[in-house]
Amino acid sequence: MAHYIPGLSQIVSGIRGVGRRDVSETAPSAPVNVSRLAALIPDLRRRLPIGTALSDEALLASLVSIARHTSEEARWRAAEASTLGQHLAVGSRDKYRDLVTLIAVLPKPYL
């Protein structure tokens, strides 16, 4: 006999909005120190398998888009969706480790 789990069909179908969180422009954002992020670029090139495929401007844009989020979850989602995250997904052997390294190197958000 199959066991009935109340609300499971609604969760799976997304009616309650579970799993539909999105990084949007309406999410609270923190001010970003761009010069501090620019100083991190050489360190990130050394720590992560970035190579020369991404320019410094593209890296800085990705870092700004990640660092402006205030919550860790939003930063994680922004890192996965960024140009840098997509590059790491394709060219990295361990995407999870690289994203953890990336988020750990970024400064904490100003609140």
Fold and architecture overview:
The protein is an all-alpha fold. The chain has a domain of 77 residues. Helices cover 56% and strands 0% of the residues. The chain is built from six helices and no strands. Helix 2 crosses helix 3 and helix 3 runs antiparallel to helix 4. It is globular and about 30 Å long. The termini are far apart.
Summarize the structure.
The protein has 111 residues and is mainly α.
List keywords for this structure.
single chain; 111 residues; mainly alpha; 56% helix
Biggest sheet statistics: none
Give the radius of gyration.
Answer: 17 Å
Order of helices and strands: HHHHHH
What percent strand? under 5%
Helix proportion range: 55-70%
SSE topology:
Elements: H1 8-13, H2 34-47, H3 56-67, H4 72-81, H5 83-91, H6 95-105
